[in-house]
Amino acid sequence: MSEASGREDDVGGVPSPRRDAAAPGGGTRPTGEPRVLISGRDLHKTYDDGRVRVLDGVSLEVRAGEVVALWGASGSGKSTLLHLLGGLDVADAGELTVCGLDPRNETHRLELRRRHLGFVFQLHNLIPDLTVEENLRVPALAVGAGAAATQARVRELAQSVGLDHRLSHRIQDISGGERQRAAICRALMNSPRLLLADEPTGSLDEVTGDTVFGLLRQLAKERGVTVVLATHERRFAEQCDRQLRVRQGRIEGS
Amino acid sequence: MRFLSLVFVNLRRHKLRALIGVAGISFGVAAMLTILAIVNGAIGMFERILAVDSHYLVFERNVSDLFFSSVTEEQVAALRKLPQVALAQPLLFGIVSSPGHPIVTCFGLEADNPRLVKAKWRAGRPQDFGRIPDGIWLGARAAEFLAATAGQKISIGRGEFTVAGVFSTENGFEDGGVFLPLPAAQAFFHREGLASIVAIQLRDETSGAAFAAAVHAAHPGLIALENREFNQSYTQFQILHFTAWAVGICAFLLGGLGVANTMLLSVFSRIREIAVLRVCGFSSAQVIALIFGEAAAIALAGLIVGFALGGVALAALGHAPQFQGYVQAIISPVMVSGIIVTALFTAVAGAIYPARFAATIQPAEALRYE
Fold first, then answer.
1. Residue B137 located in a structural domain
2. Interface residue A86 vs chain B (CB under 8 A)
3. CA of B5 to nearest chain A CA: how many angstroms apart?
4. 3-state DSSP assignment of residue B194
5. Which DSSP string corresponds to A117-179?
6. Which of A68, A124, B101, B114 has its CA 20 to 30 A from that of B51?
7. Which of B87, B92, B76, B113 has its CA nearest to residue B215?
8. Domain holding A175: CATH number?
9. How many domains in chain B?
10. Are residues B274 and B201 in the same domain?
11. Angle at A96 between CA A91 and CA A97, to 5 degrees
């Protein structure tokens, strides 16, 4: 944490939103939150030995506390951009800083995933055969959090999304909406500052999708978590603080 | 290390796959335990035959098998005259056949051999050993499988003998053999005046080095070894030991391949899941530790089941009519440690490739394509 904190100081900070006291992973959030949480400049990404150009000079900035939508059609590059932001993939060119850390650096990437980021995927990506509670514990296991703190955090998060009665249920025994709510809880387990959500409502029906999106937005605001949301649905994008329109590997207007 | 709790969760989730891995290791453990215990037991029995009331063994130098060793009567007499020697017992080993039993070990010994006095006599008397014309004495188990009783005539090789006595010892190997007075055995095997070995009892155990030196000086064609030295250096024992370990390790290699296969399947079927673990903050080292942890847990379970299976197999062999009294398994701490180390090593080695593969899974690719 010390290395990351040092880098964050370099970025410059503003008064921080409150960090969840019950977070099992780290407990304390730096007192100074950087004004700019994500800073990307001229990001390029290609696949298939350069034959498929997915991102073509994307630049963006996301400030602490914002809920930002990456809005665009399927194949526009928004998921790839989200993967770069989360250190799941590395840009071919360009500069990127997330929470004051460099996602190209393996150590920083691990630190990002453990302490600063939470992911929510379209297909929830919960581990089958495990219970909801066991799935929620996974990020806490990665950072070696204490049992009592983890237990308290699991209860608190599950309660906040109305899943406390489902904790002992296996993933395959709960509904799609409940799975996505569990995925949101897992993403928030270590009290990240940034939540990256890749089409979190994409596999849900309209009503459930609305519920999950509302929940995501509410939790983010309540807990001071910055959200970057990739979606192809305009109605969700319009409810965010800011929309970044992604088209053919570029952010329009950037 | 709390993340290792996922090891047991994963094994629980994939019970059948885990059980296959456990079965592979447990069969290896059981095979190794059974083979080594029986071989150790067999060697132990042979050692006890040689070591009855003796400190040193004298036999022909550089023979590959004691059955081919020749110590002459003159040499035996000379050994008896050495000041360090309290008792010298010549023994002649041979293989005889009987209808339906092509291989029966035959011991030729003198009437005052201590093993005759120590044995439990079921028929006949020790003091009559060697005094009954054409007499043959049977170990208890040999009497059973030859279906012979005292006073009965039996065919051994081309000769016919009268069963003059039946006795049992604590040694299954001896119990399965037949005994002849030394001169009769020498005549039967056409080895007049020869013994295979001479078991030496010293007057003073500390005089062993002087005795061995005296033998070497007076009889360069013979070698005198302490029982312990003999057990460690006798080629046949070494071959038996080596064969047992080789067979056991082969069994383990199969078990190791089973674990490798299990772990590989486990990793391949969980590529997306491992990617999710990485996204949730698991490091490469933690993923590797998970895979090795699963392999080690499989090995531990395999060890427990394998030792239990091996124990049951040994007990069953010990009670099988065909092996009655002959299988006297010996399980040593070294053997158990060796099996444990081999099982863990095999399982961990089998998990190396799957673990490396798991550590190189790129989350973005795994989540994008699967």
1. yes
2. yes
3. 9
4. strand
5. EEEE-TT--PPTTSBHHHHHHHHHHHHT--HHHHHHHHHHHHHHTT-GGGTTSBGGGS-HHHH
6. B101
7. B76
8. 3.40.50.300
9. 2
10. no
11. 140
**Contact at CB, B276 and A86, closer than 8 angstroms:** no
* ipTM here: 0.81
User: Per DSSP, what are the bridge partners of residue B214?
Assistant: none
Residue B294's alpha-carbon distances to A244, A246, B343, B352, in angstroms, are 45, 43, 14, 12
Residue A80's domain comprises 2-251
Report the sign of the C-alpha dihedral through residues B313, B315, B320, B324, in that order: positive
Nearest CA in chain A to B13: A129
Contact B328, B172 (CB under 8 A): yes
For residue B48, the one-letter residue type is R
Sort out which chain A residues have CB atoms less than 8 A from B276's CB and list them.
Answer: 125-127, 138
Select from B220, B254, B287 the last residue of a domain. Answer: B220
Residue pairs between chains A and B whose CB atoms are closer than 8 Å:
60
- Looking at B185, B220, B255, the residue that finishes a domain is B220
DSSP string, B28-87: HHHHHHHHHHHHHHHHHHHHHHHHTT-SEEEEETT-SSGGG--EEHHHHHHHHHSTTEEE
Indicate the number of domains in chain A.
1
In this structure, are B280 and B325 located in the same domain? Answer: yes
The reply to whether A139 touches chain B by the CB within 8 Å rule is yes
Q: Flag if A141 and B5 touch (Cβ within 8 Å).
A: yes
Q: Which of B13, B282, B368 sits opposite A129 (nearest CB)?
A: B13
Spatial neighbors of B175 by CB under 8 A, at least 6 apart, are B139, B140, B141, B142, B168, B169, B325, B326
Length of chain A: 254
Closest CA to B350 of B9, B25, B6: B25
- Is residue B229 included in any domain, yes or no? no
In a shared domain, residues B185 and B68? yes
Q: Which of A86, A125, A145 sits opposite B276 (nearest CB)?
A: A125
Q: What is the signed CA dihedral for A168, A174, A176, A178, rounded to 10 degrees?
A: -40
Nearest to A119 among B3, B273, B279 (CB): B279
Domain around B152: 62-220
Please name the residue of chain B whose CA is at the shortest distance from the CA of residue A86. B279
* Partners of B167 in the β-ladder: B121, B139
Instruction: Say if residue B70 is in the same domain as residue B207.
Output: yes
